[in-house]
Design brief:
The chain is mainly beta.
Length: 267
């Protein structure tokens, strides 16, 4: 009677345990990835872009279909948040957090397509200025600064600052005024260009009785992030140049701090 070799089909018992562990590891990775997607989707409304309506009347529908229930009608100037796009439909959220869909195509009776909301990258300031506190470092010491600011335009701010600097060679005080130009980078982030001039009063450590004053200029760049409606976190890099003050000469300082918004007209 002929003999046949029978090949075993299926997992090798000697490798079954290792194969099971690999499958479990893959399942854990898939579950972790799914969890990240769920968390990100739950946070996505917080990342929504603020915008303002431009059309006189814009209907919002409950679902992305013109046959669905009409929730409300937005007017020009209403502030919304853009949540997502889906073809010719855009999901918006109102200031009361009511969500609906806007149709971007023409419907029967319309002569033109509705205009999408205009993105708000430079919202108007809620206050006219603020009070700032900053600390910083440079190659020879540290510095502490207090500032008062007034914003005359949406992107232009004037600051008056009193600053104390301590270094190995001298300690000195700065009193200066700066003009800052603010450029929006995102809904809550602004870049800043700053330049100004003032007076520096220095006292050399070796001869504490010999104090002198001199003119100074400073210029630099920075970035700030809005917290709430009127407060800011800010960071800056400035170059300071003093004239006729050999113990000071010039230096570059790195500053970080915060600004508390103030409505000066209401005080």
């Amino acid at each position: 009677m002929p003999m046949f070799d029978v090949e075993r089909v299926g997992p090798d018992p000697a490798r079954g345990f290792a194969g099971g562990e690999a499958q479990k590891k893959k399942r854990r990775l898939l579950c972790a990835g799914f969890g990240l997607v769920v968390v990100w989707s739950s946070l996505s409304p917080l990342q929504a872009q603020p915008a303002v309506m431009r059309d006189l009347e814009t209907p919002l529908y409950e679902m992305p279909s013109i046959t669905s229930h009409r929730l409300l009608t937005l007017s020009a100037g209403d502030t919304v948040r853009i949540l997502q796009n889906r073809g010719l439909w855009m999901q918006l959220a109102t200031h009361t957090d009511q969500k609906g869909w806007m149709f971007l195509g023409k419907t029967e009776g319309q002569t033109r397509k509705p205009r999408p909301p205009a993105l708000l990258t430079a919202p108007a300031p809620a206050v006219e200025g603020g009070v700032s506190a900053q600390v910083g470092v440079f190659d020879r010491g540290f510095t502490v600064a207090g500032r008062f600011s007034y914003r005359s335009l949406a992107r232009v701010e004037v600051e008056a600052a009193l600053q104390y600097v301590n270094s190995k060679a001298a300690s000195f005080h700065l009193l200066h005024t700066n003009v800052r130009y603010l450029q929006p980078l995102a809904s809550r982030v602004q870049a800043a260009l700053t330049a100004g001039a003032g007076v520096i009063h220095s006292t050399a450590e070796a001869t504490a009785g010999s104090a002198r004053s001199a003119l100074m200029i400073n210029y630099g760049v920075g970035v700030q992030r809005r917290l709430g409606d009127s407060h800011w976190l800010r960071a800056e890099v400035r170059r300071v140049t003093a004239f006729t003050a050999p113990e000071v000469t010039n230096y570059t300082e790195f500053l970080a701090g915060f600004t508390l918004g103030m409505a000066w007209s209401r005080l």
